[in-house]
Amino acid sequence: MTGAASLTGIIKSFIELEGPVTFARFMEMALYYPELGYYASVREKIGRKGDYYTSSDVHALFAGMIARQAAQMWAILGHPPVWQFIEYGAGKGKLAYDFLNQLQQQYPDCYAALTYWIIDVSPDFREKQQAILSGLNLPPGKVSWADSPAQILELQGNRITGCIFSNELIDAFPVHRVRMREDGLKEIYVDYRDNRFVEVEGLLSEKLLQDYFAKQRVALKTGQTAEVNLAAIKWLKNQAECLEKGYIITIDYGLTSDNLYNRARFDGTLRCFRRHTLNDDPYQYIGEQDITANVNFSALEIWGKEAGLNMAGLVTQSDFLLNAGILDILKTSDDYSFNEKKLHTTLAIKQLIMPEGMGRYFKVLIQHKGLPAEPELIGLRKLSIR
């Protein structure tokens, strides 16, 4: 029996015992069920042999720009002798490797004060992270792993000073799905009938689902389907509670609520990835495909403010990388000959910043807490068009 068949049977049995489940619960089991869920299983997920690419897989320059921004943040914080950079969902550990390598070379004082934390729920990924980072010859304690920010607080004895970073994390959180009907908002549940999963509509499972749209002044049209990422709100509030002073950088693909819930996305944004192929059926290949939905950056701003986070800015990934100086590597090179390495770098930069690639679809949100004033961050400054 395959993993997909096993997990399908487990979810089917759960529904037969407990009744229809929210789509968020179904998605949680499909992605995170121990050993069988997509992110909990031992299988190749990222890269050419996996299901998708992330920006950190494209080129080390991506992590280099994050390191440059982090070094400025450390300076704004007053050059603390000890500070933390916390990465959520570090995947194979490539961003951590490139970040630490770049920081050590270019900002040695910042590097010396740094403790790098990785929070990742996947045992498979943790092994890969430890393997790749072993190649850096890091001093003891430079990189540590934790299950949650609360565990970091417990281990170090105080709240976090530094930066909490995530890249393509929130889009993997389980989402509720709702649909507007003439008699009001309904939630989509998952049932099992006639040997297949089916969707049924019912009452809202949480009051926040109703408040969610009202607070953003969003009015769904009759028949419109939308995703609601309540887990993202809970996650952000948790980060804010654990952060004493510093920043939260969230990179993901998504939109603000006025664009996310307009007529162009009348059926929502839920989609699945398997072997670099896109589909819209979450009820096939259960445990063997990624399930995701666009991030609502307006919700992160609104509920972040309630949690004590101030908005530094929201820009496209393209603007962030250009602002941070990703093109400097080409401008400062004194090698004018054509070679394969330069071609690879140029093509990688193009993929990271061009509108038809990752540059426009991915956004960079930066929030901060505990800072009396807000100097302009290099990644958020306006582009100088010459």
UniProtKB/TrEMBL annotation:
Alphabetized GO MF terms: protein-arginine omega-N symmetric methyltransferase activity
Keyword Transferase annotated: yes
Keywords: Methyltransferase, Transferase
Name of one Pfam family that matches: Methyltransf_28
GO biological process: methylation
Record keyword Calcium present: no
Protein name from the UniProt record: SAM-dependent methyltransferase
Species name: Desulfofarcimen acetoxidans (strain ATCC 49208 / DSM 771 / KCTC 5769 / VKM B-1644 / 5575) (Desulfotomaculum acetoxidans)
